[in-house]
Amino acid sequence: MAKYLAGELLSAAELERRVAELGAQISQDHAGESLLVIGILKGAFVFCADLVRKITVPTEIDFMAVSSYGSGTESSGVVRIVKDLDATVQGRHVLLVEDIVDSGLTLRYLREYLEHQQPASLKICVLLDKPSRRKTEVPVDYRGFTIPDEFIVGYGIDFAENYRHLPYIGIIGETE
Ligand code: IMP
Ligand code: MG
Fold first, then answer.
1. Fewest CB within a 10 Å sphere: which of 20, 129, 157, 172?
2. Neighbouring residues of 38: CB distance < 8 A, sequence distance ≥ 6
3. Which residues lie at CB < 5 A from ion ligand 2?
4. Residues lining ligand 1, CB < 6 A?
C-alpha cells in the first residue's frame, strides 16, 4: 500500500484567515500582559511563525522538541523531551502552541510538565483538533479547526518528514 497526497483539506487562504483570528483573540485575552509562546517542534513551526506575527502584546518565543515513543501514527503517551526550554516559565503567562491534538497524550504530558514550573497562566493553542481520536481530555483554549480522522500533512506537519513545506493542509491517501 503506497501513500500519496490525495487532496487539499484547508487552503493557504483559509489558514491565513483563521490564524489572524486566533492572533487577535489571544492578543485581546492577554491585553496588558506579556506572553511566553512555546512552540512544539517540528510540527508547529510554520503555525507558530504565522501566529506570533498576529499577536500584538509583547511576546517572547521559545521552542521545545518532543518525540513520542510508539510506532507509526499512534502516540504512546510517553513523551521524550528532545529539546528543552531556554526560557524560565515560573511567573510567566505561557501559550503552548501545538500543531495537532489527536489522542491528547502529548499535550497532557506537556501541560503537566509546564504546570510544575508554576507559570502565572498556561493556555493551549492548537491549529487542528481531531476530537474523535481523543484518549484523554486536554483543555484546548484556542483551536484553529476541528477536522475528521484523516492523516494530514503540510503547513509544518509531516508524513515521514515529508510535506512540511506545503503552504496548505493536505490529506494523505493510501492505494490498495
Ligand atoms: P497525540 O499525543 O496523539 O495528541 O499526538 C499529537 C501528535 O501526533 C501531533 O503533534 C503530530 O505530531 C502527530 N499527529 C497526529 N495526527 C497527525 C496527522 O494527521 N498527521 C501528522 N501528524 C499527526
Ligand atoms: Mg508533533
1. 20
2. 62, 63, 64, 85, 87, 94, 95, 96, 97, 114
3. 43
4. 43, 75, 98-107, 151-153, 157
CA of 40 to the centre of ligand 2 (A): 7
Pairwise CA distance, residues 169 & 46, whole Å: 12
Q: Are 98 and 107 in contact (CB under 8 A)?
A: yes
Contact 102, 148 (CB under 8 A): no
Is the pLDDT reported for residue 69 higher than 80? no
Give the residue numbers marked as catalytic. 102
Please give the Cα distance from 82 to 106 (Å, whole number): 13
Cα–ligand 2 centroid distance for 30 (angstroms): 26
Note the ligand closest to the C-alpha atom of 42: 2
- The three grid cell numbers given for residue 135, joined into one nine-digit string: 484518549
Over residues 35-58, the pLDDT tens digits come to 999 999 999 999 999 999 999 999
